[in-house]
Amino acid sequence: MLPIGALGAEKGRNSDVPIESPPTLKSGLHQGDIMRKLLVAATILAVFTAGSAFAKTVRIGVTPGPHAQIMEKVKEVAGKNGLELDIQEFSDYVIPNMALADGALEANSFQHKPYLDNQVADRGFDIVSVAETVNFPMGLYSKKLKNISELADGATIAIPNDPTNGGRALLVLAENGIIKLDPSKGLKVSALDIVENPKNLKFVELDAAQLPRSMEDVDAAVINTNYAMEAGLNPATDPLVREGEKAPYINILVVRTADKDADWVKTLISSYHSGEVKEFIATTFKGSVIPAW
């Protein structure tokens, strides 16, 4: 009988199946050379995939002026994080939500929460806020008046014609003692809810984007900051009166409800809420636009 150790050797000698030798490196390559080549290949792959971390380019709707300017900076930061943005500008407040709900956009950034809530209630859009962005305090502007005390009896004031911003404009006037509104209406007020109008002011409702041009024809106009800046006005110094920094009117980033937890949404939010974007807002707008994070 053979010893146990010899049995394996004897089996190896007599078996029809050859015993394999350890693999050898060919072409004069050593293990270190192969590891270096694999490392280089992995690095190249990482470079190519980092620039396209997400499969699609995100189309995001904004209004002209500050929203568009800020989003250009967000695009720069997002690009470093592997997310490509396609910024599309809209000249009114209605189409961006329609385009988002219909799938023509992946996101938009132009509105505050009360406006979104009103749009969802009226039109049934399946879209949702995912982050706060900036605050644009509304102001009362005039080319004819230097001080609010000059507002004459029977003067005409232009306000936005959409219910949310129209009500917001009236609240600005009420906050500054120019009119008094029915307190039971909260944020949902209209000209019908004015309970005291000591100067017998007349109100004209116009598309928000047209309000800066209307100043030639009215005594004053309550204008959203983005449209005021687009018209060359300074929202920090030009208004006769200015809205306080109220949380309900902070602007928001909006996506379809089905996308709210998507990875690209998280990257978009973190890019917007970056220190680079906050610094850009501070240096570019000098108090006219206020970061909300």
Plain-language structure description:
The chain has 293 residues and is of the alpha/beta class. The chain folds into two domains: 58-137 and 248-291, D-Maltodextrin-Binding Protein, domain 2 (3-Layer(aba) Sandwich), CATH 3.40.190.10; 139-244, Periplasmic binding protein-like II (D-Maltodextrin-Binding Protein, domain 2), CATH 3.40.190. The chain is built from ten helices and 13 strands. The protein has helices at 4-14, 31-50, 66-80, 95-101, 113-123, 163-175, 211-214, 225-230, 263-272, 275-285, and strands at residues 58-62, 85-89, 107-112, 127-135, 139-141, 156-160, 180-181, 194-196, 202-206, 220-223, 241-242, 250-256, 290-291. The strands form three sheets. It has a six-stranded mixed sheet, sandwiched between helices. The model is unreliable at 1-29 and 40-51 (pLDDT under 50).
